[in-house]
Each structure stands twice: as C-alpha cells, then as structure tokens.
Amino acid sequence: MSFTMHGIAVSSGIAIGHAHLVSHSSLEVAHYVLPKQFIDEEISRFDAALQATRNEFLSLRSNRPTRAAAEFDAFLELHQMILDDPLLSVAPRKTIASERCNAEWALKVQTEMLVAQFDEFEDAYLRERQTDVKQVAERLLKQLLGQHGHQLPTARHDVEMILVAHDLSPADLIQFKPHQYAAFVTDAGGATSHTAIVARSLDTPCVVGLRNARVLVREDDLLILDGEQGVLIINPDKAILAEYKLRQSAWELERKKLKRLRTARANTLDGTLIELHANIEKPEDIAEAKENGATGIGLFRSEFLYLNRDDLPDEEEQFEAYRAAAAGMDCQPVTIRTFDLGADKQLKGVERVANNPALGLRAIRMCLAEPQLFRTQLRALLRASHYGKVKILIPMLSSVSELNQTLQFVAAARQSLDAENIPYDREVKIGGMIEIPAAALALNVFVKKLDFLSIGTNDLIQYTLAIDRTDADVAHLYDPLHPAVLYLLSYVIGTANKSGLPVSVCGEMAGELVYTRLLLGLGLRQFSMFSAQVPGVKQRVLTTSLPEIAALTQKILRADDPMKIRELLDRLNS
Ligand code: PEP
Ligand code: MG
Question: What is the pTM of this model?
C-alpha cells in the first residue's frame, strides 16, 4: 500500500531507496530457539559478556573526570551493583537453559520484568532507578551483540538504503558516516537538533519529526524521501517514482552547476566581499569544505572528538586533530569551539540526568566544571595554533564571570606551554558564541574582552523563544523570524560592527538561502554553514545588491505581524 507522511525537512535532497529499520532501544532484539547442544555455549557467551561489561566499568573508573569524581564513582558503583545482582547476572542464565533461547532474548525478558517491578514503586527516586537498570542491561547487551559482530547496521551496497529510526542521537549519526546511507528518517527531533545538524553535515537528505514512521514503515519498503519538503512516500506507484527520479536528477544537476562557483569570490553586486566559512565536526571534513569553496572554518564542533568512545581524547590526540585542521586550511582561519558537551551530546558513561538538560551543565559551564578536561583542550588548541590560523571560540557564554574564568584558563595554558618552551601563536584570537539572550543583551561587556563574536542562532532561538530544539512537539514554534529574534540579531550584528569586532553567524540560519539577504541587510559579512550549503549561499550573495536590500530589511525589522514579515521577506528574496 502506498502512503505519504509529512515531517520536518532538515537536510535537502531527494533519496530513493529501501527502508532499513533500526530500533530506538537496543533492547529490541531477535528471539531464537537453540538446539539443546548449544545451551552451554550460549551460557558461556552470556558469562563472557558479563565479564567484559565488568572490565568496561573498571576501565571507566580509571578514566573518570577529576571534578565529577564523586558523582561518577557513585554512579559506577550503583551500576556495578546492578550488574552483579543475581537478578541480572544469574537469572538470564537460567532462562537460557529453561527456554533454550538466545542470551540477548533472556536478558531482554529479565530486564523488562525488572523494569516493570520498578514501575510499581511509590517512591519516585526508586522508580527512577529503572533507568539505571536499563542502562546496565543495554551495556551488557552491547557486549553480547559485539560478540556476534552485530554492531551498527551497515548499508548494503547493492541497493540504496534509507535508515528509519524512532530517534538517533548525534553520536549515533556520526557513527553512520562511513556507512553511506542515502537518507535518514526519524520520528523524533526538531529542525536544529544536533541530530539534524549532523545529517546536514553528512550532506545526506533527512526528515525528522515524522512521529510514527518507525512503526508504519516495514523493513525493505521502497521509500522516496524529499528532504526539501519534509515528505516521505512509502511504496510509491510507478508514476510517482518516475516523477521523483526526474526531480532527483534535476537536483543533482543544479548542485553540480553550483559547484562551479567554487573558486569565485563571494562579492555582492556592489562589490562587498562576504566570507563564507564551513562548519565541521572532524578534521576529515576539511576536504569537503575546500571542495565547496569555503574560505575558512567558522565552527569546528570539537565535542565530536569526545563522542562514541569509552575514554577521553588526550592532549596529543586533540593536538593532532586540531593541527590537521589548521594545516589543512592552508593559513585560512580555523575557528575551533571548546567542547560543547552536555544536553544532547553526552560523554559515554557519564550521562547526566538533568531536569532541563539544555539549561544545565553544558558547553562552557561543563568546561569550567571539568578543569582538567578544559586545560587539556586549551593546551592542545594553543599548540595547534602554531601550525595555521587557529581561533578559539567559547560556547554558551552567559555572564562575564564565566568569560573571566575562561580567560584565566587560557592564560594558565599559555604559561604552562611557555614553561616547556612549546611554541604557539601569541596572537591567537579568542571569540565568544552569542547564543543566550543574556549575552546578546549585555553585549557591551563581552565586546570589550573578546576578539570576535559568532552568533549561534540555533540556541539563540531556542533560549529566546523557550522551545527545546530537540522536541518535535514544539518544533512548529521555532521561528527565526520572530521579532524578538530579529531584534537580537540586529542588535548583536550592529553593535559588533560599530565596535569593529568581527561577527559571524554559525547557526543553521547562515546556510538557509531564505535568510541570506536578510542577514546581509542586518550588516552580516561572515557566514558559517555546513559545507554543501556554501555554493548556494554564494550564488545568492553574487546576486544581491546591499544598497537595494537596505530599506526592505529595515521594514522587516519594524514589522510586528508575522504574515507581514513573511510577505516582506518574500519580496526581499524575489
Ligand atoms: C548554535 O547554537 O547556533 C550553534 C552553532 O551551536 P550548536 O548548534 O552546536 O549548539
Ligand atoms: Mg549552540
């Protein structure tokens, strides 16, 4: 049966391929009955996974972050206790023997039973402990699956595959990078969630917020995904398929044409040079940035070096990554953001359960709370600055005391390198992300102490409008054209320009063609976006005259009716 679903378009392009479903919970596992002679072997496999999980806990303990040591130890102790409880370590062995089932299934059945018991508790704290049981069980399950070699699903190479999941974390998605999926589909998520951002950076069409695609789509169904319109067509008929094949070819042709602009300078019609930089997650992304004609890296999200692993990247590893990026850009600027961990990007093993993760210990707050991690990163960044034009960017600043503390950390890192005679760029620039309304409104304080600014519109919009960027239920309220957002953008860009401080936008707005002229009209001269968006934005810049858009931009700023704002924006773009 053919049907269509609508979600939130987050990464453009048209993909046609077969569905591959992944479970949102790794506890969804296959069930099979084993011949009697394999039972002992299956129990040994379970025991081996149990031991490997114990070893994993031991290694986590030796790599624990210093500042959070007490919290981390308590969390590990609890998880070790859960693992060693006979209800988890012995009961599944009995199930394997009595039911003659595979170890994964025995573990799943037992975990579900335990979780159901926790549900009965009146005490909220005890009820919440079911999350710990699930986490320990998942860790054990991963070991079991690892022994089978069932890691992340790998795309088949004979047909195009579209990954359909209830939800994918940014860490999950980055792991799919080498697997060449034609598109991603998720039930959860908003347009600027980090999952969406990673999909865009992979240059892979993606639609999120489909709500129940994971349930309605079946394995191997033929799918058409339109990442521009946010449409997913399941089992299309021949005529629709033919139509979308045509659209797909047209889209690819257009992309090829745009790429010819690679070496053109991004000058407006009146001759103003606009810097178009790229956002990257790993040094390997530099090649794509250059291929698309980016003249610098405006945002290197360094936290991705910390994800999908049980240990932490040490100074040497980070230095190598930052040096490779700096050297790879041949003296063009490489803006590296100190780690923005927390919220939806969590270190493995220290996932914190905060009531409001986006308002919790995230980004610079986490850096300052983990001085050892921060020192290591700053030393690596400074050392890399000797090999190119590194700029250091501080995420999520909200108060001047955070900035002062950060600058003291930088000074201490410089001193430690001086003491060891290690070279670094003494002129290295320190910038701040303006992504919290408080920082935007109190900009004068930051302007005095920083060398450059970068506006993170994804968070600025999230925090201004009080909508969780990862929550599909409020995604429709996410509005870059809200007068409050436009006011803050105009104020920050205007104030920075008046002070002679370089300012860029590195949130998703910077790469969306519909906002290019508006941002230019607000005075923005530096944009940073995911690499594949650079040619399109460049074409828009090349066809824009700054004097011609000035009056209309001011009208948009003065308008307060949403319909009117959209109408004026359409005129600006026509
Ligand atoms: C932003 O908030 O706009 C930004 C660029 O940072 P991130 O999306 O990584 O939070
Ligand atoms: Mg941000």
Answer: 0.72
